[in-house]
Specification:
Blueprint (H helix, E strand, L loop, with lengths): L7 H24 L6 H20 L5 H18 L3 E3 L2 E3 L1 H18 L3 H46 L1
Antiparallel strand pairs: 1-2
Helix pairs in contact: 1-2, 1-4, 1-5, 2-3, 2-4, 3-4, 4-5
């Protein structure tokens, strides 16, 4: 038996923050029609948190870090399942990255770093929401620049 012990309050707090973090990130994904939504993000976050508890419960001093390493690998495998290649290109890379990040948030909560997990969730939301919009605006600007140069080139060719 290990020396690991948590109060019920601490366990509930850690799992609750993992749940809330997964819920917030998953909600953003779902509202934007992404492949990994609420259900996936909540399950990954809580599952990662619970695996860290298992690592502590096994009693070896390095066990939580070993469990965390396996979470990274396992979540990478799950994330690869949301990446789709079709005729239009590759889709789902951001969803895979989000699932991977949600796994780390759950692991943070399981280790007791629930405030770091919550702050990380906010940064993930900022990345997924604000940076996506900034990226789209940049792409539109590039397309507009390209189409205006194309139009200038066409107009110059027509006048000759």
């Amino acid at each position: 038996m290990s020396g690991f012990s948590l109060t019920n309050t601490d366990v509930i707090l850690r799992i609750s923050v993992a749940f809330l973090s997964g819920l917030l990130i998953g909600l953003e994904r779902q509202l934007n029609g992404r492949t990994a939504g609420i259900h996936t993000c909540v399950l990954v976050s809580i599952g990662s948190c619970l695996f860290i508890f298992v690592g502590y419960g096994l009693g070896e001093i390095n066990s939580p870090s070993r469990i965390a390493a396996q979470i990274v690998t396992g979540i990478g495998f799950i994330g690869s399942g949301v990446i789709i290649k079709d005729n239009e290109g590759v889709r789902g890379i951001n969803s895979a990255g989000t699932v991977w990040c949600v796994g780390s948030v759950g692991a943070l909560c399981g280790c007791g770093f629930w405030l770091t997990g919550l702050c990380s969730s906010i940064l993930i939301l900022v990345c997924n929401y604000i940076l996506r919009d900034a990226h789209l605006k940049m792409c539109l600007q590039v397309l507009n620049l390209y189409s205006s140069k194309e139009k200038q080139h066409t107009d110059a060719s027509d006048s000759v």
